[in-house]
Amino acid sequence: MIEQRGPRVIAACAFCAVSAVIVSGCDFEDERLSPSEAYQQSLEMAEEGDRDSIFDLAYAYSRGLGTDQDIDKALEYLKSAAEEGHGRAQLMLSEAYLQINRGRDLEEMIQIRDDWYEAVEQDLESGYKWLLKAELNDDTSVSRPAEGILVAMIQEMSDSERQKFFEVASEYGHPEWQDVAKKMISE
Question: Per its UniProt record, what SUPFAM superfamilies does this chain match (predicted)?
Fold first, then answer.
């Protein structure tokens, strides 16, 4: 949930969503933090297993906010957050692996920068995996867009792509999309 507070946008999460806040610092428990202090706080909370902070670190490293820019380290943290069930991380990782929206300006989508696309080679299996996990995520602000992407993608897939998708959906226990892919392959 994002709320307006004066001229800044503050995300209401365990710490603060770095994507919205770390650029100008953050108010954390009535304390004003600089970007480097916000980075340090995220690092400490990530070490305790806080998945929002792990995602925040991915963003901080991708932009060089409070730390040196390091896209490889950003990708490590993004994968870690996705593995911990962070929905935005799952969706962003699927977008990077599938190479969808590259060069597009879509306001509704979670935007990733071109350097994410360059750090990750297209990998349909990994992309499908993370997209299916995002679609199963409890966060509807993630699962609904993931479902929309899946609907659009499966309609445009070739039979061989649908077969690969079917295999991934089977492997990750997603019966609904397994059935959809299977029906479309046989048509």
Answer: HCP-like
